[in-house]
Amino acid sequence: MGGGGQQTESSEPAKCDGVGPGGGRGGSAVYTWEEVQKHCHRGDQWLVIDRKVYNITQWAKRHPGGIRVISHFAGEDATDAFSAFHPDPNFVRKFLKPLLIGELAPTEPSHDHGKNAALVQDFQALRDRVEREGLLRARPLFFCLYLGHILLLEALALGLLWVWGTSWSLTLLCSLMLATSQSQAGWLQHDYGHLSVCKKSSWNHILQKFVIGHLKGASANWWNHRHFQHHAKPNVFSKDPDVNSLHVFVLGDKQPVEYGIKKLKYMPYQHQHQYFFLIGPPLLIPVYFHIQILRTMFLRQDWVDLAWSMSFYLRFFCCYYPFFGFFGSVALISFVRFLESHWFVWVTQMNHLPMEIDHERHQDWLTMQLSATCNIEQSTFNDWFSGHLNFQIEHHLFPTMPRHNYHLVAPLVRALCEKHGVPYQVKTLQKGMTDVVRSLKKSGDLWLDAYLHK
């Protein structure tokens, strides 16, 4: 799985401008950004939160969100990412306190790599407003009703077979209803995953295990570790696993040219916009994700997630074996996964694949998220069809915000983007989907040009 990238050996410890034994242990030292940025390697990692410098080298291995997601910010200012991922900062700060080694020198700016200080401050002010207005608080009734409509779809699919039997038309209808419930359960567990960050005993965490494990047959921990990397560094090669295409596709404007110049041809990339329909939507969930999930659960010995996953298949075969037998039930779940995979790929990729895909550029939080995401027009159908991920911009800026509040913060985000000249893209559902194919064709053409002529 992508994310983490190629890492080098640890650099020499940075020199300390201030006082404090052991290079700043105890938090009494001061550092420059030049010194902090040296500590960005696998065995030597520092980061900055609210001007405080932390040595996370050992803690990264125990980070609940996974070692990679926190390591992606080594040597950088992680203030906005810290706020975005942790709905209860006070709960997390007790883990940060022992890691504190100092702070930035008074002469140093609060932001690294020459980021736009005014934009960063305005976004942080917007986040403060969002918190004050309670937009990060979920309405339990909304999610209870949403879960209820998923369970109703499951019950109706099974009920049709009990009442009317297993004709081809009813089997197809049953498959469509199950694929719909699986897709909607995917969006729901996505909500619970973000809302349960750092609170392992919360109801959100238990509900995520139930929805992704018992209702879908997947692993919550696998999803969390993968998906949080995507949010931390969206569309950044070697850090976002969603753009790790395993040499099957070349993406964006930079990677195709790099592959072409190096004469790399693992696939006929000039035709990738065509073979995408054969190996992208049909195979992502039924093949690639299932191999990853099983491999991850066994390698990490995640027996709890494995038990949740097995409970799904036990329930499924108990329900459908009387109608279809063993092999018929296998064929049914395979067809349902095939349909669900198409739904998942188009919804998730229309917001990201046509956007900028590049190597690490050390952008501020808002600019990084806006360059990698776009929105799809709001409508009742689009909201339901995409699980409110048509508000991808707002979701990426505030990943712990419950989906029913996206439409409330969207005008504020758009106004902030207009003020600072940051593009805020909104597309129709049709254009979002067709842009996926157009972007693949454009990248394939760039590869062919570089491969033949450079």
TrEMBL record:
GO terms for molecular function: oxidoreductase activity, acting on paired donors, with oxidation of a pair of donors resulting in the reduction of molecular oxygen to two molecules of water. It is a multi-pass membrane protein. The keyword Transmembrane applies. Pathway: Lipid metabolism; polyunsaturated fatty acid biosynthesis. Residues 1-23 are annotated as: Disordered. One of its GO terms (biological process) is unsaturated fatty acid biosynthetic process. It is found in: Membrane. Belongs to the fatty acid desaturase type 1 family. This is Fatty acid desaturase 2. It comes from Oncorhynchus kisutch (Coho salmon).
